[in-house]
# Entry
Amino acid sequence: MTSESLQPVPGPARRTVMAAVGASGLAVALTACGNDDMSSSGSTAPSKSAAGDDSTPGGAAQGSSSPEGDSGGTVLAKTTEIPEGGGKVFADQGVVVTQPSAGSFKAFSSKCTHQGCAVRDIANGVIVCPCHMSEFSATDGSVQKGPANQPLAAANITVAGGEIKLM
# Structure
């Protein structure tokens, strides 16, 4: 072997290495914040966000009717499964459904507007994000306590025949 055949192979540039390290750190930080969902459903898929049938800001369909046997939408729950003054997180669908008052059902994205964590607790008319304790109204998704400063996005639901469907 000659010394010419043992030439060093150039490695990646320092700038390339630093960019890769920075990007991987960002990915880890985003993953850690976004996967803090401890609800029974599992993952946090993006919600289908749309304005509901009522005109309240951030509100979703409030007991809007759909024809019996309508196959549109995804059945989330029976109305009896959503406690009055509380609600339930459906992590696989990325939505939280509340019942702020008897027979009035609302739906919002389960993704906190502060840093994207999944909301978890719903009680006494408030939806709580466990990451930084932001609180949102179970009636209209508005911010009740920061650090979040944007309301939860409304999700479109229908309520008919004792079932709540995500549209």
